[in-house]
UniProtKB/TrEMBL annotation:
Any one GO molecular-function label of the UniProt entry: ubiquitin protein ligase activity
One Pfam family from the record: IBR
EC code: 2.3.2.31
Domain of life: Eukaryota
Pathway(s) per entry: Protein modification; protein ubiquitination
Known function: Might act as an E3 ubiquitin-protein ligase, or as part of E3 complex, which accepts ubiquitin from specific E2 ubiquitin-conjugating enzymes and then transfers it to substrates.
Protein's organism: Rhamnella rubrinervis
Family: Belongs to the RBR family. Ariadne subfamily.
Xref: SUPFAM superfamilies: RING/U-box
Enzyme class: transferase
Record lineage: Eukaryota, Viridiplantae, Streptophyta, Embryophyta, Tracheophyta
UniProt keyword terms in alphabetical order: Metal-binding, Repeat, Transferase, Ubl conjugation pathway, Zinc, Zinc-finger
Name of the protein: RBR-type E3 ubiquitin transferase
Catalytic reaction(s) noted: [E2 ubiquitin-conjugating enzyme]-S-ubiquitinyl-L-cysteine + [acceptor protein]-L-lysine = [E2 ubiquitin-conjugating enzyme]-L-cysteine + [acceptor protein]-N(6)-ubiquitinyl-L-lysine
Amino acid sequence: MSSNSKDDLSFLCDICVESKRAYEWFNIKGCSHCYCMDCIAKYAASKLQENVIKIGCPVPDCKGCLEPEYCQSILPADVFDRWGDALCEAVILGSEKFYCPFKDCSMMMIDDGKEKVVESECPSCCRLFCAQCKAPWHTAVDCAEFQKLNEDEREREDIMLMKLAQNKLWKRCPNCKIYVEKSEGCLFMTCSLGPIASTITVPIVRANNDLSASVVDNGHNY
């Protein structure tokens, strides 16, 4: 720190490498390092962006640390609140917390484990979801059946199609996963839409006795 007079003290911040007035000095808690307030505020915000909530001194291997309450006077309100929220979430065990499955909500909730809840309502967006599957409510299928579905088959429209296929006795091509229905011909089909270059031949069970029924997908040759 340099001094021109008792009323005009300044120091050089090692982060921004600029000369700062004495009132901009900020000491790191637990060590002797100090930097300007602006740099420490930006440093804390950048660490939170990296999902680091236990923020130490900028000097590697230093035991100094920063805490929300200690830094509150120099932090923007949104950074202080975000830091506090992140610390609170970290206290809750991962198995006890979950988020609303609707992407436009994502409110954090806590499972207290007192009882097994299946159908539940998000207190924020008021939409129904399955607390066991952590997914939007799946009326047409139970949890065991839902959890067997692939990630890209769990939307409401996908489940409705699956139920329709079951009712219509449609079969699914094991290669491209498209539903097909036999309308005529033999009990074999050739898939031409699969990810492999050569075609495959798989057995197709007669879906119904109506030989005039239409084929669900025309990409399969019979």
